Amino acid sequence: MRNVPIRRVVVTGLGALSPNGVGIDAFRSALREGRSGVTSVQEFDTSALGSRIAGAIRGIDLRDAMEPKQLKVVSRTVPLAILAAREAMTDAGFPPNDLDLDTRRQIGVLLGTGGGGIAFVEELYGYYYKGQLEKATALAVPAGTPGNISSELSIQLGVRGPSHVISTGCTSSTDAIGYAFRRVQYGETPIMLTGGSDAPIAPAIMLGFDVMGIVSRNWNDQPERASRPFSRDRDGFVLGEGSWMLLLEEREHALARGARIYGELLGYASTCDAWHRVSMSSDLDEPVRAVQLALQDADLSPTDIDYANLHGTATPLNDRVETAALKRGLGPHASAIPMSSTKSMIGHPQGACGAAGLVATLLSLNAGFLPPTINCEEPDPECDLDYIPNQSRPAQGARIALCNCMGFGSKNSVLIVRQGDES
What are the structural domains of the chain? Predict the structure, then answer.
């Protein structure tokens, strides 16, 4: 094996299209204020569903991402990803329209998505069963293929580095960021556009989660209160959508061009319980090992962690297992670490949730506050850590954060990041 120098990897750009804030400034403000983006679903009839709410993005014009004729042949996931990616690239000092060929060839894309174009495929099936095949597109196959989403990003942004998709369920964007981190770390690609995008709010998808019995049904009349991670009265997650993107870069490359640095990625790890398609193993071994391996990769100990952004879906089992796993993985220090679930404010955007948590973490730490877990109103004796309930709080010098993600298929993925730049 050839000896490869390990490069330091920094975050120089962020982008966000979130149910509670479009753009990084709006998203940061919503995090600070503890503002929910969960509302009643207005886009289609939900009267037959037990859960009729979602974290939907409204007030945006998708024509800002693509020409109207192009929007007809892609899933909603694509323009959401494009808009967030453009913001991240511009924020980093790489506006897509102003790049020379050499720079375009240095930028790769590694996107995480869970459902990808599944809502688009659902729409096409609808045309079939209604006898409206004339409405279908000849580009149905690429539009419904998750792997093509990164190609759409590369085409629209004009970047010519590697263009890949990671689809590992709820951990998709955490894993995409982790693999992008490795590409830059090992000198394979100097700049990586990475993150997550998902748009799963569609009738059959909502029905599927409803049948599984894992979405909230008790708060349809108060949707902003429905996502309740770690509260004893939680009754399931709220489906969400959105796109959160980051620009990763070799530190020396970023410093040479005078870039602002939001933070430095320090560690990544992933494990699998090999247990069940949707349920989580209660033995905790693999989520604990993911935390420990990420700390080892970052060359840190549990006492170095100042804040943890949690998976925190608000399903009864997930919140209990995650709490227990972090207590074991971080040891006695777990009780001293402030933690929060971004999903309390945006719902669960499936494969994009890990990117949402990391972007939220970097924005908050750089602004000097820790985001809250809203709706955390009734203490659960099995969920007894510091979840920053209901209101944000001053960061008090917090710099190193652990971002945890756990998903379908028994997957566990962890990222560790340090705010700002440290020589």
Answer: 9-256 (3.40.47.10), 266-419 (3.40.47.10)
